[in-house]
């Protein structure tokens, strides 16, 4: 498993998902609430992915990724944009994938953290 900085595919995928979510207002129908919800959550997902890439031993980053994925997944209901079909499906798909990727990266981050802790 890749534990060097900038080499973990899970984290790169999370960065891409975050960027896609943040920029999705360019190709899906939206209102102001929808746009800002997706921009903010997508941006946070991308930033957390970049942080995890830079610091592969930060286990909490993967947990944050899962939480952000859950927030994006539930945002159509919470923020009231289920009537905007493309935006809702974008949130559900990207949020679900962020949850899966964050959960899949937890063992990799734990292993990297364990190896880094052993080097101190």
UniProtKB/TrEMBL annotation:
InterPro entries the record matches: SPW
Keyword Membrane: yes
Transmembrane stretches, start-end: 12-29, 35-54, 66-86, 92-112
Key words of the record: Membrane, Transmembrane, Transmembrane helix
Sequence ranges assigned to domain SPW repeat-containing integral membrane in this UniProt record: 10-103
Pfam family, one: SPW
Name recorded for this polypeptide: SPW repeat protein
